[in-house]
Predict the structure.
Amino acid sequence: MDTDHADYLRVIGAGLPRTGTSSLKAALEQLGFGPCHHMAELFFKPERRILFSRALDGHKVDFYEIMKGYGSTVDAPTQSFYKEIHKAYPKAKIILTVRDSGEK
């Protein structure tokens, strides 16, 4: 584990919600890649909702600044910006979670 970058985002989850993102969050935090940003963060930090709303509306935002203090991120809304976040944190690894549709 790279301890030189304790404040550096190291893992970006690119999977959609309901693809095991809560389990991935728990695993990442247990493995030392926390704190992990998850959609639930937006319920407790409304100022972050505003930043992501601006990004979703097409405004330029500083993803390095938005993700500062997190070791990883999964789920919405960050999965929509995984490429932009990776540009801000180029050493971060990207994990794509998927699930079967259940249709046959």
